[in-house]
Amino acid sequence: MSSASNAEVTGGNARRLPLVISIQSQVAFGHVGNSAAALPMRACGVDVVEVPTTLLSNHPHYPTMRGCILDADLVADILTGLLERDLGTRAAVILSGFMGQAETASAVAGFVRQVRAVNPRLVYACDPVMGDSDLGHFANAPLREAFRDELVPLADVILPNAFELQTLSGIQVTGPDAVSEARAVLDCPAVVATSVPVPSRPTRLATVTTTARGCASVEVDRLPVRPAGTGDLFAGLVAARIALGTELEAAVARAVAGVGVALSRTGTEPWAEMPITAALDAIVAAGGD
Which segments constitute the Pyridoxamine kinase/Phosphomethylpyrimidine kinase domain (predicted)? Predict the structure, then answer.
């Protein structure tokens, strides 16, 4: 799977960068959602339009959190504004992450359909942020159903962790082979599953990419760190590389390497923040030639 770059000559030697529209949470402090993904995406060489689904002081694993999940009508209104600026025809990729509520997921689904109508080259990458194996579900049942019934069927690629893929498909994701089974159940063109157990190597985790052409797996060591936002960073790096025209498997391999750099520099205290700004150059360069 690849996407041709939307770079265009705009005058002289100037070129318009590929555009990613990134719809997910935003925090004032820390690195989750767009606050984890947007800066690395820009550093990869793409333009990013950030659409918030939340405005929060910090992620919810601190003792307190202020702010709110944004009203779905407000998110929809912002998305309408992007259509009015003709950004749908420019976009190479729409990336969606944390929605907060089912009504927001429905608004995003409508936006994707509108953009597709004018831009058939668009790649829609859906990160179905619903929970994790150590946290359980933090998306309520209506939102989980909206991911399954509205957003995933529109996606060119989904980027769940193993727990989320299991929730969506009903397949027990106990190893890489199960990811292909889940893709078949979901009838999705491409699935990129993170945090997949490797049965023969319990100290390893796999990121598994599966399409109709086959399956590829990238393994890494389990690390003694647990920051929030690793999936958001990963999805952003994949989306940026797709927008630049990189084939999906290569984009995934580079994103795994980039997240590995961030994790290697993250403190071991629970929910330590990834040093994304300090490590930005190394995150972006990771996995390159």
Answer: 90-264
